[in-house]
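Contributing new complexes? Match this layout with zinc ion.
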Amino acid sequence: MNVPLDSLLDISDNNPPSGLRSVPVLMPVALDQTYDYLVPDGFDVAPGAFVLVPFGPQTRIGIVWDEPRGNAKPVDPAKMKTVTSRIDAPLLPEISMRFAEWVARYTLAPLGMVARMMMSADQAFEPPKHRFGVQIVEGAALPSKMTPARTRVLEIAADGLVRAKSDLANLAACSTAVVDGLAAAGVLVEVAIPERAFPWPNPKHAETEFTPEQTRAVESLRSAVDAGNFSTTLLDGVTGSGKTEVYFEAVARALEADHQALIMLPEIALTSQFLDRFARRFGAPPVEWHSALSPAERGRIWKGVARGDVRCVVGARSALFLPYANLGLVIVDEEHDQGFKQEDRVHYQARDMSVVRGNLGKFPVVLASATPSIESHVNALIGRYRHAVLPGRFSGVAMPDVSLIDLRAQKLETGKWLAQGLAQAVTETLEKGQQSLLFLNRRGYAPLTLCRSCGHRLECPQCTAWLVEHRFKKKLTCHHCGFSLALPEKCPKCAEPGSLVACGPGVERVQEEVAARFPDARVALLSSDLIPGLPEMREIIRGIEAREFDIIIGTQIVAKGHNFPGLALVGVVDGDLGLAHGADPRAAERTFQLLHQVTGRAGRTSFVGRGLVQTYSPDHPVMRAIVAGDRDAFLNYEVKTRQNGLLPPYGRLAAILVSARDKALTEVTARDIARRAPQSETISVLGPVEAPIAIVRGRHRWRLLIKAPREADLQGYLRAWAGTIPKLKSDVRITVDIDPYNFL
Ligand code: ADP
Ligand code: ZN
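Output block (do not edit by hand):
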């Protein structure tokens, strides 16, 4: 008789088989609970350890958690599966676990998905790949047969360094066979190439002398770091006032105290200019973290951060989720930037979550901006945040002189997008040998193509959206789903040849007009779809700094974080573009920020710049504030609007998006969900309504908006609501977005 041992033990005793214990394991999947696994004898699986476990039909990586989470029910030990193996990677720090739990609770994302974000460096969990190189063997006898190539190799290797065979062969201008031959002869030996060490920024490398106003801000930030406590400071000052210079001192202080520091920037602002500045101040570059890194680099940095070998990270929003061993400061530069909001999987706002991280880690967080978000502005106003203000530009140069071009009075010529006044200003700037920037936040050539003969508009077959013409690529593209087709020669509806016309401008069309008007000017076009990646973008930015271009045409990627010393004129082609989003409570704020930022690029260091904004609504409060250079007037106006409408930060919002391929099913589901909303005195549910973009990628979309007072338990309300919703039809998808920034 062959009775399995497990079942015998199960009868006698409900505890795990003797010597075996179990641990809760969190899987990086869309589940909100841990699962218990047995741990074989002699396995060291401390909380935070990464382990391989059987999960369904697969073996997957999970994280040993310190406590069971979610609805983890006790599992019959007889049925419990066993941890397969331990992965050789640093432990996930305890504070990262608490942070993951906090983010999951707040965003309503499954804990497993937050964990998955924290693990977004696959190679950190793979066995380290040692690269091998060769090194000279001290005192080894030379081989009997020496050739000139062998001599060259040995001369180079004489310094005793370990080099990859190919590197050594390249240096000696010979083939790797020569290196192999020397290794076979025992003069060179194969050894593992040591892992590259991370740069070590030195807080004392190049200290800055500050103006009295800057000194006050520096002292305030230093004292926040020295306090070793949680605090949030809004570092508020116009572009060029020295915010970067000032927060570098907070970084220096944190490094001196042996803490790690994180500087978060909108991805696009991660320019070489910024990295060079960091290196000048600290004598070493920071470690960058963004989407363009190779998988190997991601793995190396992930481990370096967990071990505390990486001292300072400069990164995009996802850098907040790295496993810091000893984080002691977070700086969020351009804190108002909407790029800090992640819109897929886990919907989080990295600026807000950095404040949470500071609170958990008991360290200061600094939010820097020339145009703070209304949320941060209000928090500073009511004393929840400290406020450090830098009043003027370091260079002493006045802010640019901004005026409006009223397009109702100065009519555009047909097919032209620059009014006479703007074209004239560009001409004058060219004559002075200075640079002009023409800003239009719209990629491509034209946002709409229509048939002159039958009026047909070319729309995306899968989205409620017009196809945008990209003339360089000779394509019509959907900016929502990426669908594209070759530019047709005749109307797809009435088949009339040559009847399609482009309507409205994109940056490519502005470039065409510029080429016609200023044929001798050197023109740079900056648009994300025309630039393959970060390195290429950095190269163009460098060219602009070096004044290799006279006219720069760009989308919002030119608005952020750059310092162009030769830039004298900024022309905004369509100042009203951002104001059109009726349902978006932040439309005015965003337009103000963008216009302020982009006009603020002009004349930063040695002369007063000029800004010209083309608009059909010169009386709008945003336009008035931009012209008057009166940021506070705008902030006051906007704070009142938010207060009256109980909009953030005076109230809280959540969005629910229901989508499905079937139109009726989408609507029925959205209505059913709305009907089940729990009764509440204070929380109201608006909708459901069809989303402004009714179809994306073939999926119909309906929206609900939930409005709550600041102090309401919005998450609790939504969780209770979710509990009443029956199992959805398989194709229906529901996303919940707390603090939404997107209302389309
Ligand atoms: P912001 O971050 O507010 O836009 P920056 O820190 O980039 O401002 O400063 C603008 C320019 O002025 C930069 O070129 C910077 O190096 C210079 N600058 C600011 N403060 C000082 C200072 N105290 N000493 C020397 N240069 C400074
Ligand atoms: Zn589409």
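Reviewers usually confirm one structural detail per submission. For this one: DSSP finds 20 helices and 29 strands in the chain.
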